[in-house]
Design a protein that fits this description.
5 helices, mainly alpha
């Protein structure tokens, strides 16, 4: 190993630094995407959901987006260079669904607060957009 390093230092160090920077770029990009996904998931319920539920909605939205993006990459379902479908589509849908669950402020009550009608209207909205 040391003999290879002495004979060709530029290639060896270039490969190591390139691999290290690639991993760093992926991590930074993933953190930025997860942050945006959490915000996107919380946007539909921003005026209706309590503060404690915002953490749950954002965290679950980021996880759902991560798995959707990995599934899309693994199965090559469609081309989405900026992961727009994974961020806005999945997290927006989860945000609307979660608003129907957690809403309890602003005169709106969700399923956990005892109002089944608002939850069903959110499900109808999801189905309408999906169609």
């Amino acid at each position: 190993f040391f003999l290879l390093m002495r004979r060709r230092p530029p290639r060896s160090t270039q490969g190591v630094s390139s691999a290290a920077s690639d991993v760093y770029k992926r991590q930074v990009s993933g953190i930025a995407t997860a942050t945006v996904c959490g915000l996107i998931a919380m946007t539909p319920g921003s005026g209706f959901c309590p503060t404690w539920s915002a953490f749950i909605i954002g965290f679950v939205g980021a996880i759902l987006s991560f798995f959707f993006i990995k599934m899309r990459e693994h199965f090559h379902l469609f081309d989405d260079a900026l992961d727009v479908a994974g961020c806005h589509g999945v997290c927006g849908t989860w945000g609307v669904f979660a608003t129907g669950l957690f809403a309890n402020e602003g005169g709106v009550k969700g399923l956990l607060a005892g109002d089944m009608n608002f939850f069903l209207s959110e499900l109808c909205g999801i189905a309408t957009v999906a169609i």
